[in-house]
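lol forgot to send this yesterday, sorry. struct tokens for the thing we talked abt
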């Protein structure tokens, strides 16, 4: 097994997920070719967990990078753990498998390792990723997420994905899936925004009790994409306490933020298209934070969310009206 299981977590369906993943989201200004270059660098550096999504609109480029690295013998397909996500316009059960097949075609792969529901908030089906009415407001849809989940279970049975999970679900939405009559597979994970300013300790505790892995995105704060993040949001990596811990360990604040998650049992995604940073982000396995460090970082929590999804606040499945 080329995957190093000491750096992986066992999922509730028996598969393994590397605890450090490479995120591939980029704002519209970034050329799609960057995802191709950065994914190749990430694999060379040692990343084996690649986190992507249909919505990111760069799966062709990411897939090309993966195939090149397989063809030249750097990795085998089974060394890579690849995640894609079901976008909000495909939540009706009849669109679930075709959506995954679209991703697989773009990637040039036969299966993904993990297929997750991107957001619990359904949008009007169709070709527009963000369907809007004449006044520019997003057009929503109402779908029973339990029906969507059943369609994901069928994708797993069909061998199109090894594992299935969710993203941006609160504990009540997770309960709804877990308590579904005839549930065949539990979600293996819940991918959520998680960093020292939003440490998700209650959701983490809940998920651990249900044997669901928490996967952290925006673990280094967040990209400043004005479509999703407010301009005056704080810069996590400039935090004085984080920087003091970094100085003590002769590390970057980013490495501290990533190491913090791994030590608390969270799978963490690191996103950067900068070669030096991609290398740096992978170097978190050769040092350890002390209990005092962990406590100091825990103390930074202020329940601050970068991605608030405010345009969906009136949707019945808006996830952030719950405490966790």
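and heres what i got for the seq, position by position
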């Amino acid at each position: 097994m080329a995957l190093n299981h000491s750096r992986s977590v066992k999922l509730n369906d028996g598969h393994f997920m590397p605890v450090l993943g490479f995120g591939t989201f980029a704002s519209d200004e970034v050329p799609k070719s960057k995802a191709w270059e950065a994914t190749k660098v990430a694999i060379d550096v040692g990343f084996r967990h690649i986190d992507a999504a249909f919505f990111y609109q760069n799966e062709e480029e990411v897939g090309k990078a993966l195939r090149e690295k397989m063809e030249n013998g750097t990795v085998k397909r089974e060394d890579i753990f690849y995640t894609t996500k079901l976008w909000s316009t495909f939540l009706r059960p009849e669109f679930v498998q075709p959506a995954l097949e679209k991703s697989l075609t773009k990637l040039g792969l036969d299966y993904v390792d993990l297929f997750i529901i991107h957001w619990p908030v359904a949008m009007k089906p169709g070709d527009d990723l963000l369907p809007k009415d004449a006044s520019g407001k997003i057009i929503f849809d109402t779908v029973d997420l339990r029906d969507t989940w059943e369609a994901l279970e069928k994708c797993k049975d069909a061998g199109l994905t090894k594992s299935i999970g969710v993203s941006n679900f609160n504990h009540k939405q997770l309960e709804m899936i877990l308590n579904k009559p005839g549930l065949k597979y539990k979600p293996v994970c819940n991918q959520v925004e998680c960093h020292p300013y939003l440490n998700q300790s209650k959701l983490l505790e809940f998920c651990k009790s249900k044997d669901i892995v928490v996967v952290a995105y925006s673990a280094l704060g967040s990209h400043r994409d004005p479509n999703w993040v407010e301009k005056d949001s704080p810069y996590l990596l400039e935090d004085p306490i984080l920087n003091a811990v970094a100085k003590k360990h002769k590390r970057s604040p980013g490495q501290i933020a990533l190491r913090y998650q791994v030590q608390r049992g969270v799978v963490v995604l690191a996103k950067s298209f900068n070669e030096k940073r991609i290398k740096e982000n992978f170097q978190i396995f050769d040092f350890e934070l002390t209990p005092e460090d962990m406590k100091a970082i825990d103390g930074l929590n202020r329940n601050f969310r970068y991605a608030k999804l405010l345009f969906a606040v009136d949707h019945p499945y808006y996830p952030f009206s719950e405490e966790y």
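The first helix runs from residue 33 to 45. anyway ping me if u want another try
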